[in-house]
Design a protein that fits this description.
The protein has 479 residues and is α/β, with parallel strands linked by helices. It has helices at residues 45-60, 83-95, 109-121, 132-141, 152-163, 214-224, 237-250, 273-281, 296-302, 306-316, 327-338; strands at 32-35, 64-69, 101-104, 125-128, 174-177, 192-196, 210-212, 229-233, 256-260, 263-265, 323-325, 344-345, 347-349, 351-355, 363-366, 377-380, 384-388, 396-398, 402-404, 410-412, 421-422, 429-437, 440-448, 458-461, 465-470, 473-478. Strand 1 (32-35), helix 1 (45-60) and strand 2 (64-69) form a beta-alpha-beta unit. The longest helix has 16 residues, at 45-60. It binds one RNA strand of 76 nucleotides through helix 4, strand 6, helix 7, strand 11 and helix 11.
Length: 479
RNA sequence: GCUCGUAUAGUGUAGUGGCCCAUCAUGAAGCCCUCUCGAGGCUUCGACCCGGGUUCAAAUCCCGGUACGAGCACCA
C-alpha cells in the first residue's frame, strides 16, 4: 500500500476557518447591515459585539453599515442627547470607519404612522382598548379580544382618537398586529405595535403622541432601508417571528437573520445603562469613563485598543451558545497589540531608598524595549536608588546596573548569579498608579522614573504590567 | 406553565457522514531566549452532555432524556 497509494496513508492537513463565517444567502448582493442601540446612554462593552460583527461584514463584503438610533421610548428609557454625539464617535473608533448611514427613529415617525394606518386600512391591525391585564387573559386562553373585530373604518377613528390629546390617554389603547390567537408561541399572539406616550421627547418634543414599539418600528425601518442581514442576540428570536408575521401581511421579504448567544463577563458583573446613569449621578463613579465601568469610553481610556475588541469578538464568532468569558482573553488580544509600542518604564511601589556603596556606572543608558528600536532612557545616580519595599532586605540584582547585597554594597557589575532581578528608579517623581479592581479603585503610591512621554502613551511598567499615562498619574491597563 | 434555542479540553472556538486516536487560541506546567513576574520560541496537559437508533462508517443525521439560557412588556 505504501508504494501503490501513498496518498492514502498521509494524514491530510485539517483546514481551519479563519475569521467570520460566510454570510448566508448573499446572492451576489452587497450586504446592508445595521446596528441599533438605544441612545439612553453611551455605548458599552456589550454593544461592541454588534458593532464589530455587523461592521466587519459590511467592511469585508463592501456593503453598508447603518447606525440606527432606536429612540422611541420616552418613558422607560428616555433618550440622552449627548448619546447622539458620542455613539457615532465611538462607532468610528471601534470599527475604524464611520457608518454609511445614520437613521434616527424619532425623526422618521411619519413613516411609522403611515404604515400603522396602512395596517388598519388593509385590515391586519386593530386598535385595542383592553387593559394589559385583560389582554393577557386573552393571550393565555387563546381567545380573541372583542376589539379584534372592529370595522376598518372604526379602527381608523380609534387611531385618530389615540393621536388626539383630548382622546385616549396613555394606557387606554394600543395598536395591535392581527396574527392568530391560537399560535403555539404565546409571544406572537396579536402583538402590540404602538402605544401612547405623552412625555416630551428630547429631540422632537411633543410632536408625536403615538409611538411605535421596537418590533414595529424596527420591522418597518429594516424594510425601508433595504437591510439584507440582521445579526443580533438570540433573545430577539421571537422578535424575528413577530416581525416576519408583519412582513407577510405587507407582502415583504424578511431579511436573513443570524443570532448570537449571551455573553457574560464575570469581572463586569451586571451593569445596565440606567443603573450606571444613577450611580454616576450619585457620585459612585466619576463619569461614564470611570475605569471600573464596562463602557467603551472607560475601556478606551484604560488603553484597550479597538483592534483588540475586534479580534476578541471575531474570535468568539457567531455561535448561539451562551458563554462566559474572562476579561483576560480580551487583555491577551490587547497585549499583542500594545506590547511592541509600549516603552518600558520603572515604577517603584512603596519606595524604599537604598544607598549604593562601591564602584558602579553612575550614569548611563538603558534600553526602552528589548525587541524594538526605541530611543534608550538615561539614568543618573547621586548616591542611591529607590527599590520596592518588598525587594529590600535581600541580595538583589538591580536590573541593567549591578548586583548588591542587603546593605547596598555593590558586589558585581555583571550578573554574577541567579539572584532576583529587580527594577529601580534613580531620582524620579512621586506618582500614583490607579487600578480598577471590580467595584474598587485601588491607588498605589510610588516613584516613577523620569520620562518625557506624552499623556495617553501606553507604557509597560517593568514587573507590573501595562499602564497609560494620564495627567495626574498612571492608570493600569492590565497585566 | 407555554414557546423557542444551545450543548466539542478550565475558558472560548474549528468541524455539517469517512480527511477526526478531533483544529486553533487562551489557560496551566516545563524548557529556551531575554539583565522585567512582559514579549518571542518550543514541549506537555486537556474535550465531542447522557441513552437509544439510522449507516459499511456518526462530533456530524434521527428520537428520547438531562443541563443551561432566552421570550411570553403599552422596554430596547
Amino acid at each position: 500500500m505504501e508504494t501503490e497509494a501513498p496518498e492514502l496513508l498521509e494524514r491530510k492537513v485539517q483546514t481551519r476557518r479563519e475569521g467570520l463565517p460566510e454570510l448566508p444567502n448573499l446572492d451576489g448582493r452587497k450586504p446592508v447591515l445595521r446596528f441599533a442601540p438605544n441612545p439612553n446612554g453611551p455605548l458599552s462593552f456589550g454593544h461592541s459585539r454588534g458593532l464589530v460583527i455587523n461592521g466587519q461584514y459590511a467592511k469585508d463584503l463592501d456593503g453598508e453599515l447603518i447606525l440606527r438610533f432606536d429612540d422611541t421610548d420616552t418613558t422607560v428609557k428616555p433618550p440622552m442627547l449627548e448619546a447622539y454625539e458620542s455613539i457615532p464617535e465611538q462607532q468610528e473608533w471601534l470599527c475604524g470607519f464611520s457608518a454609511h448611514r445614520i437613521v434616527i427613529a424619532s425623526e422618521r415617525m411619519e413613516h411609522y404612522h403611515d404604515h400603522a394606518r396602512m395596517m388598519l386600512e388593509r385590515g391586519f391591525g386593530y386598535v385595542c382598548t383592553c387593559s394589559g391585564e385583560e389582554f393577557k387573559a386573552f393571550r393565555v386562553s387563546m381567545t380573541e379580544c372583542p376589539c379584534r373585530n372592529n370595522e376598518d373604518s372604526n379602527n381608523l377613528q380609534l387611531w385618530e382618537k389615540m393621536n388626539d390629546p383630548d382622546g385616549f390617554q396613555p394606557g387606554d389603547a394600543v395598536l395591535r398586529v392581527k396574527t392568530d390567537m391560537t399560535l403555539k408561541n404565546p409571544a406572537l399572539r396579536d402583538w402590540p405595535a404602538a402605544r401612547i406616550q405623552t412625555n416630551s421627547h428630547p429631540r422632537v418634543g411633543n410632536k408625536w403622541r403615538v409611538w411605535p414599539l421596537l418590533d414595529f418600528q424596527s420591522a418597518v425601518e429594516d424594510h425601508l432601508q433595504e437591510v439584507t442581514h440582521i445579526i443580533r442576540g438570540k433573545d430577539l428570536m421571537d422578535s424575528t417571528r413577530k416581525q416576519t408575521l408583519l412582513y407577510e401581511h405587507f407582502g415583504w421579504k424578511y431579511p436573513e437573520t443570524i443570532y448570537w448567544g449571551r455573553v457574560k463577563v464575570h469581572e463586569f458583573g451586571s451593569f445596565s445603562t440606567s443603573q450606571m446613569k444613577r450611580d454616576i449621578a450619585e457620585g459612585k463613579f466619576s463619569g461614564w469613563d470611570d475605569a471600573r465601568l464596562p463602557t467603551l469610553s472607560a475601556l478606551s481610556r484604560r488603553g484597550i485598543r479597538p483592534d483588540s475588541l475586534r479580534s476578541f469578538w471575531i474570535e468568539l464568532g457567531l455561535t448561539q451558545k451562551d458563554i462566559a468569558v474572562p476579561l483576560s482573553t480580551l487583555y491577551s488580544h490587547n497585549t499583542k497589540i500594545i506590547d511592541p509600542d509600549a516603552p518600558r518604564l520603572a515604577f517603584v511601589r512603596n519606595a524604599f531608598p537604598i544607598v549604593l556603596n562601591g564602584e558602579y556606572p553612575k550614569s548611563g543608558k538603558i534600553q526602552s524595549h528589548s525587541d524594538t528600536e526605541m530611543p534608550p532612557r538615561n539614568y543618573s545616580i547621586e548616591e542611591g536608588v529607590w527599590i520596592e519595599q518588598e525587594d529590600s532586605g535581600k541580595s538583589i540584582r538591580l536590573k541593567d546596573l549591578c548586583d548588591i547585597d542587603v546593605d547596598g554594597n555593590v558586589e558585581s557589575i555583571d550578573r554574577s548569579d541567579k539572584r532576583p532581578v529587580v527594577h529601580w528608579v534613580a531620582g524620579g517623581k512621586p506618582s500614583t498608579l490607579t487600578i480598577a479592581d471590580g467595584q474598587d479603585l485601588k491607588i498605589v503610591e510610588g516613584i516613577l522614573e523620569d520620562h518625557s512621554y506624552p499623556v495617553g502613551t501606553i507604557v509597560q511598567l517593568e514587573r507590573i504590567g501595562y499602564a497609560i499615562i494620564e495627567n495626574d498619574g498612571l492608570l493600569m491597563t492590565h497585566d
